[in-house]
Amino acid sequence: MSALKSSAVVAHRHGGPEVLELESIDVQDPGPGEIRIAQEAIGLNYADIYQRQGAHGPTQTDSFPVILGSQGAGIVEVVGPGVSDFKVGQAVTYLMPGAYAGVRNVPAARALQIPDGLNVEQAAGTLLRGMTAEYLLHRLYKVQPGQKILVHAAAGGMGLILSAWGRALGAEVIGTVGSDEKVRVAKDAGCHHVINYRTERFEERVLELTAGEGVHVVYDAVGKDVFLPSLKCLRVRGMAINYGTASGDVEAFNLQILHAKSHSICRPTLRSFTITTEELRTSAETYAAAVRRGDVKADINRRYKLADVRQAHIDLESRKTVGAAVLLP
């Protein structure tokens, strides 16, 4: 098999942004069932921070060197043996670890034709979040018109999608943010009410806004700092969904806290909801359809060169950023 050279961001150990190194790697011809993609954009997600730091979860890294990232989009360069769904020159996107590279091979079963309504950058930068929002709002907890939902980090890339889509489904959306500037962003995205958790106790304000009843579901990508107070925001038989841990892992707590109001808790991952190729493609199309209807925006707010990946991680980890970002090879 022949090989070509490609730039890639490689980590040889866990740590801060300084462990990310731009290197040249060999990319072999695609094997059976694979396609080779010349990438035009690479998604940047908080899960990449977890992987770099060595946090527990579906992106946990046990061996090095490792190429970070899990989503991208580009043009099919070579089609491996046995692949019939894709052809050379086709624009595609995918969800698969090892995305921080200019050229890479991907199993065809984890790749997608870019759905109508999304361009290459939007597919690379928002598809993972959009598909996460799809299962959070439509499958794990099926949000109904008139229900009340709480979205933490409502001005972040995931929060913007959840807030807009939740409102489009007819829910009353309460968002939390960390600055007055982000209050405006979250309201523009679709939140009916926005709480600056740095100036207010969000759990008290949520109960005020819901006349003491609480919300039906909490969408929490923050983790440790908000998990326990979030349980106070739930109504009877409400569900707390912790799908990210930007402030740290949620550690052991007294299960009896859930008893009085029969609360449920879930710690899901997108991987479990896109196991099959059919699930992957259906989820992507459901998200793209929401974008086409105007229920959700697929805006890219920041672009970084692949060589500037350290700064991209610094900006993302600061929690001062808004919306989605991509790396450009």
UniProtKB/TrEMBL annotation:
<dbReference type="Pfam" id="PF00107">
    <property type="entry name" value="ADH_zinc_N"/>
</dbReference>
<dbReference type="InterPro" id="IPR047618">
    <property type="entry name" value="QOR-like"/>
</dbReference>
<dbReference type="InterPro" id="IPR020843">
    <property type="entry name" value="ER"/>
</dbReference>
<protein>
    <submittedName>
        <fullName>Quinone oxidoreductase family protein</fullName>
    </submittedName>
</protein>
<dbReference type="Pfam" id="PF08240">
    <property type="entry name" value="ADH_N"/>
</dbReference>
<dbReference type="InterPro" id="IPR036291">
    <property type="entry name" value="NAD(P)-bd_dom_sf"/>
</dbReference>
<dbReference type="InterPro" id="IPR013154">
    <property type="entry name" value="ADH-like_N"/>
</dbReference>
<dbReference type="InterPro" id="IPR013149">
    <property type="entry name" value="ADH-like_C"/>
</dbReference>
<keyword id="KW-0560">Oxidoreductase</keyword>
<keyword id="KW-0521">NADP</keyword>
<dbReference type="InterPro" id="IPR011032">
    <property type="entry name" value="GroES-like_sf"/>
</dbReference>
<feature type="domain" description="Enoyl reductase (ER)">
    <location>
        <begin position="15"/>
        <end position="327"/>
    </location>
</feature>
